[in-house]
């Protein structure tokens, strides 16, 4: 292959913390939050085009979003959209993409022999693909710097049998992100000491003040040989299940295999299942204006504000004695706020949400209650 870099974009989430804008039928990765004319997914794909041939970009998603992806990324073909028949978290998602990439290499090297019914012995030295894995819903403000970092990371994993993740220098004691503790050193690329899931406020403050911790961006880089070895070592059940179908990846038999096998996978994240247990993990400290855009609060932080620190998205709003609010309504609608402070006001498709920004973590509970009480009508 002329370019052996691959990109795996994870696009199966439902983005419930952005309800009511993000819905089961059209989650946040398919929305244009900033009025740029591009969804978060389209921005993500475009971000990787200079680094990875379009035919080497794979999108892993729930089967119900395949047509929507092909509509938004028209120069991709259906075989590049890997459809999960069930939601099983990030480890099975990534394992599927890894098996698919190996299967493509398998078909490329041995395709003629397979067509003629010959038995072949796979040579793992042919697994020279370098892979970057990224969520579909992140915001990157400095794209040139992002591409420089990703290019450097791909070069590093092509020469070293280690897993690499990108860490962002924290600017506040954020409780909504995971943290990575670095080993001591001066380099921007260091070995990982520990991973910590979302901490409470006091612990997050300790992390930030120590200078030893970075935000976990959820962006990973590795070569194909290394990640396959780590899956076999740490999640052998998942690795072996996908290995049984590698021969059919990229053929008409792939869908049937995934339909039968994928729902049997455990629900487990790549962080817990592999990254925290792998024998060699590095982190690259980066600064390119990153946000995982996971909540209304994070969107508020990134948006342009008026003199009273109010944010208005896509609609019209009149503020009276109101400060620090975010208002998001359909285009052409008007919201009038009087005496409100630090609130989320969002309306979409028959649902109006009014919630303090400080309590936005409860939105997932609101979504769950709406599904229970209204039979999924508003989800």
Q: Give the ordered list of helices and strands.
A: EHEHEHEEHEEEHEHHHHEEHEEEEEEH
* CA-CA gap between termini: 44 Å
Biggest β-sheet strands, sense, barrel = 5 strands, mixed, barrel
The gyration radius over C-alpha positions equals 22 Å
Q: What class would the helix/strand composition place it in?
A: alpha/beta
Spatial strand sequence of the major β-sheet? 6-9-7-8-10
Number of extended strands: 17
Segments where pLDDT lies below 50 for 5+ residues?
Answer: none
The percent range for strand residues is 15-25%
Question: What is the count of helical runs?
Answer: 11
Helix percentage: 25-40%
- Gross morphology is globular
Give the integer mean of the pLDDT values: 91
Written account of the structure:
- With 379 residues, this protein is of the alpha/beta class.
- 32% of the residues lie in helices and 23% in strands.
- A five-stranded mixed β-barrel has the order 6-9-7-8-10. A four-stranded mixed sheet has the order 12-14-16-17, covered by helices on one side.
- Helix 1 (40-48) links the parallel strand 1 (5-10) and strand 2 (57-62).
- It starts with a strand and ends in a 5-residue tail after the last helix.
């Amino acid at each position: 292959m002329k370019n052996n870099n691959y990109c795996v974009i994870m696009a199966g989430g439902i983005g419930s913390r952005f309800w009511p804008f993000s819905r089961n039928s059209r989650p946040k990765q398919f929305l244009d939050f900033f009025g740029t004319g591009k969804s978060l997914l389209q921005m993500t794909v475009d971000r990787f085009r200079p680094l990875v041939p379009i035919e080497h970009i794979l999108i892993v998603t729930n089967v119900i979003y395949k047509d929507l992806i092909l509509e938004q990324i028209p120069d991709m073909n259906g075989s590049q959209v890997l459809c999960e028949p069930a939601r099983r978290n990030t480890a099975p998602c990534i394992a599927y993409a890894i098996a698919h990439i190996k299967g493509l290499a398998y078909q490329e090297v041995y395709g003629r022999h397979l067509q003629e019914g010959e038995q072949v012995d796979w040579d793992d030295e042919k697994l020279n693909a370098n892979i970057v894995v990224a969520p579909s819903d992140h915001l990157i403000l400095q794209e040139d710097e992002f591409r420089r970092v990703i290019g450097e990371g791909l070069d590093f994993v092509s020469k070293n049998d280690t897993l690499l993740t990108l860490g962002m220098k924290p600017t506040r004691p954020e409780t909504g992100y995971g943290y990575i503790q670095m080993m001591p050193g001066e380099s921007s690329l260091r070995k990982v000491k520990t991973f910590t899931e979302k901490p409470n406020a006091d612990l997050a403050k300790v992390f930030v003040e120590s200078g030893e911790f970075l935000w976990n961006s959820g962006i990973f880089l590795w070569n194909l040989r290394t990640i396959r070895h780590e899956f076999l070592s740490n999640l052998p059940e998942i690795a072996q299940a996908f290995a049984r179908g590698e021969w059919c990846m990229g053929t008409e038999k792939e869908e049937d295999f995934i339909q039968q096998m994928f729902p049997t996978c455990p629900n487990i994240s790549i962080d817990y299942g592999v990254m925290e247990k792998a024998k060699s993990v590095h982190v690259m400290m980066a600064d390119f204006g990153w946000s995982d855009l996971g909540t209304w609060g994070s969107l508020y932080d990134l948006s342009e504000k008026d003199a009273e620190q109010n944010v208005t998205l896509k609609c019209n709003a009149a503020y009276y004695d109101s400060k620090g609010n975010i208002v998001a309504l359909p285009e052409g609608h008007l919201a009038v706020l009087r005496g409100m402070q630090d609130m989320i006001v969002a309306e979409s498709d028959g649902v109006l949400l009014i919630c303090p920004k400080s309590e936005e973590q409860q939105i997932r509970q609101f979504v769950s209650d709406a599904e229970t009480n209204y039979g999924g009508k508003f989800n």
